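Quick one - inputs below.
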Amino acid sequence: MDQLLQRVNADDRLVWRGRFVDTTFLLEVGDTAHLIEVTAGRIASIRRGPFVMPSWTFALRASPDAWTQFCLPEPPPGFHDLLALVKRRALRIEGNLHPFMSNLLYFKSVLAALRPLK
Amino acid sequence: MSADFEPVVGRYLRLDLHGKPHRLYVEEAGTGLPLLCLHTAASDTRQFRALLNDPRVLRDFRVIAFDLPWHGKSSPPAGWQDADYRLTSRAYVDIILAVMDALELERPIAMGCSIGGRIALHLALDHPERFRAIIGLQAGAHVDPYYDIDWLHRPDVHGGELAAGIVSGLIGPSSPDSERWETIWHYMQGGPGVFKGDLYFYTVDGDIRDRVAEIDTTRCPLYLLTGEYDYSCTPEDTLDLARRIKGARATIMKGLGHFPMSEAPQHFFSYLLPLLDRIRGTA
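Output:
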């Protein structure tokens, strides 16, 4: 999670893909929450909870095990994509999904940046 | 210097479907046994570009692919603007049989992917006498929804951008970048509401769970090939089909996703070519 900000912001094409994204979303790894603020496709900040009154547009919630599998360099089938996780009911995506669905390829690539570099 | 044309020939076919004149785009190449190819939802015949160019296939097979109405270079019928597009099992079967009749295809091999794989099951069940063999790629009897398909057709979400996001994860992670993004591009070009209309068939109308066990593979052999990274039609879905249909043969394709013929054609051919040989009776 620590490297996510640098990885995303260093990828010019990814930042370009998200150039209209201005939002804060919640990423939950089991009980551990993170608020990720995106400004014009760049990650402005990543804050780790717990939070008293978090404000966010949408939330991605999965177990530590599901995220661990997703973050493997070569994730197994069914753990290799956010919607694959949703299909197997390992990830819940909640809230105002408009920014997420409007920029689905961007957000998939942002989360894929959690994986180690090849 | 002569022009470097591919062996593929594309033509427009005039056809009456459901009482309305249609203009369908049809591509073909090769000579021999007819092999009729059915593309996935919201895409078009370009998915079969490698098959339509492979000399090993074209030597023995007449490969034919057509764009469904509303897809690729096939137009929707006149008056399309006045109703939502929704593909039904009945309409889909009618289109396929009408194209076969128009082209005078005598017992072709049918090979369809995704929605094409689903309709292949309908063909195997209701029209086995019309086909020499049926190949279902990424074929399952039904699919559990995993996103709200209303997102696919609303003016405040770009349908092409969203479709790219939807299908990107369905492609095997190791498929070559050039073929991956070609496959995604076809999806980015789909017309508004077409993906959603196709998924009406895929998620609702085309559900064939209750009937698949009645498929008689002694009347028409049925082969199922599914990529292991597909989470729309999972390997489990296909293996479940194979358990329920006596005589159906299923193979899970390593490394591949939901678009085998388009995302990694050469890898896909390592599974398909032996199967085509077998169907020809030379294996």
